[in-house]
Amino acid sequence: MAARTFELMGFALVADFRRFEGTVDIYGQNHNETWELLGDQWEIVEINDGPSARNAHDMVYHVGTNNVVMMGGVNNVGVLSDAWVYRNGWTRLATSPPARYGHTMAYDSDNDVVILFGGMDGGGKIRHDLWEWNGLSWTKIRQRGHQSYLNDVFHPGGRWFGRMVYDSDQKMVLLFGGHDGIEQRDDLWAWDGNRWTEILTGETVPLPRASHGMVYDSARQNTVLYGGLWDVVGDLGDTWTLQQIE
């Protein structure tokens, strides 16, 4: 197969299986290709039936079912509500959360569930709902939380293009940033499976941003954040680490 290169944006990439599906190039043309990274080589996977082309979706690897789980996104037709699993081929799930794009997902390895939060729906509403997928079905989670240090909200407000990771050492999902419909945020929240808590991390914090990358490094026991977009300055290229929360 001949090698080719192109610039990508709006794709989803997941570790462990290291596969991604659905990209949009700089010209705005959606793709519905599936690729696998084997060692240091990318290989395209021939798929006869699978998800439609899309961008601004998200996906994670679910260890319990040995599947990559993907949900939502947007394409030239509209905002999508379908959810799929991938293991040697794509299978559409019977149920899924309401249509959205720009949402964020994380895998809670201790409870063996996928967590999904936020995004924007087809009507332009920025969502703040929380969902779990347990390997069989999706469940909407009633959100509770401790009072915010900064205001009177008890859980994160609606946002899209925020990022979540699961901190397996502290056993919590961490949510940082995103766009609330007015501006990018720089707030940090922790979900312990029962309630949200807003976290203050000192005077030095990353700039507000959305569409950043964020992963949890279990070997070093810290969260790594890179890049994103802040309307005030444009694209960001900074790297931050978050040590364990006291």
- Biggest sheet statistics: 4 strands, antiparallel
Main sheet strand line-up: 1-2-3-4
List the secondary-structure elements in sequence, H or E.
EEEEEEEEEEEEEEEEEEE
Q: Tell me, rounded to a whole number, the average pLDDT.
A: 86
Radius of gyration: 17 Å
Please count the helical segments: 0
Care to count the β-strands?
19
Classify the secondary structure makeup into a structural class: mainly beta
CATH homologous superfamily of the domain at 8-141? Kelch-type beta propeller
Shape: globular
Q: Remind me, CATH topology of the domain at 8-141?
A: Neuraminidase
Question: How would you characterize the overall build of this protein?
Answer:
The N terminus is likely disordered. This protein is globular. The chain has a domain of 134 residues: Kelch-type beta propeller (Neuraminidase, 6 Propeller), CATH 2.120.10.80. Strands 1-2-3-4 form a four-stranded antiparallel sheet, with no helix packed on it. It has a four-stranded antiparallel sheet with strand order 5-6-7-8, with no helix packed on it. A four-stranded antiparallel sheet has the order 9-10-11-12, with no helix packed on it. The chain has no helices and 19 strands. It has 246 residues and is an all-beta fold. The termini are far apart.
